[in-house]
């Protein structure tokens, strides 16, 4: 049984009104995908393709108009959120917007632990130290507030929060897109290490070809709300020449500025 199955999910915004000029806007149309435990599926697409909407549906934040989201064989919209929330976590693009600025890093990381576990104060403190050290920070950082961290450091705090409950799946919603090249490489390396350590599955939602190639085992392309390409291996994606892959690769900047060209 697959860890995650999305079956013919469709979604739209707006309402059908006879006298209104505002028509419904379809953002997802018959989207299906499968994700196995311990693997990373890279979901690529340009801005407005419907990637983040699919992520919200998967997280149980937005019910689709049609289709099913099955986690370990159970429809998440037919069960109580407590039955899957511990096993599905998320890391968003904007780390500063994803945390409460009035909480310390320790309090931020502890949120899912206090929600889903019954640790003693001593055990909780030790767990927090272990988690923050696993993401490359120190125990002393637990007492700091978000404003004391750089974007890359705070994203590490968010990752520590995401792995706190030993989830089976983490949705990475443009999780490295706002970082500079150095921090991006470091966070991707950290995510690879955590994937192996915890046997995690990732749904990596991004428009960044280089980032998705560094982490993913298989690839899908979402275009105008529909899956238009599925590449089961990194080699298949690297060798793909269809228009959708080519357009995404063409939009990618070269790593070094000297190798970049200006299109007329």
UniProtKB/TrEMBL annotation:
Keywords: ATP-binding, Nucleotide-binding, Transport. Residues 4-249 form the ABC transporter domain. One of its GO terms (molecular function) is ATP binding. It holds the Pfam family ABC_tran. InterPro entries: AAA+_ATPase, ABC_transp_ATP-bind, ABC_transporter-like_ATP-bd, ABC_transporter-like_CS, P-loop_NTPase. It comes from the Bacteria. One of its GO terms (biological process) is transmembrane transport. This is Nickel transporter subunit ATP-binding component of ABC superfamily. The gene is nikE.
């Amino acid at each position: 049984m697959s860890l995650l199955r999305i079956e013919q999910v469709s979604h739209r915004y707006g309402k059908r009104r006879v006298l209104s000029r505002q028509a419904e806007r379809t953002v997802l149309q018959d989207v299906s995908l499968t994700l196995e435990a311990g693997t990373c599926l890279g979901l690529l697409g340009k801005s407005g393709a419907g990637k983040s909407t699919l992520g919200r549906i998967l997280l149980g934040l937005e019910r689709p108009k049609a289709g099913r989201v099955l986690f370990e064989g159970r429809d998440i919209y037919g069960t109580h959120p407590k039955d899957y929330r511990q096993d599905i976590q998320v890391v968003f693009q904007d780390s500063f917007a994803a945390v409460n600025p009035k909480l310390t890093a320790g309090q931020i990381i502890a949120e899912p632990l206090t929600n889903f576990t019954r640790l003693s104060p001593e055990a909780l403190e030790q767990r927090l130290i272990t988690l923050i050290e696993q993401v490359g920070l120190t125990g002393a950082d637990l007492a700091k507030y978000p404003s004391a961290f750089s974007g890359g450091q705070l994203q590490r705090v968010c990752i520590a929060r995401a792995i706190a409950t030993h989830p089976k799946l983490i949705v990475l919603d443009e999780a490295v897109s706002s970082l500079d090249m150095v921090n991006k490489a470091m966070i991707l390396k950290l995510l690879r290490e955590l994937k192996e350590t915890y046997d995690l599955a990732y749904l990596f939602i991004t428009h960044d070809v280089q980032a998705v190639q560094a982490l993913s085992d298989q690839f899908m392309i979402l275009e105008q709300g529909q899956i238009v390409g599925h590449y089961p291996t990194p080699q298949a994606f690297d060798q793909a020449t269809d228009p959708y892959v080519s357009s995404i690769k063409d939009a990618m900047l070269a790593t070094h500025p000297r190798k970049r060209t200006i299109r007329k």
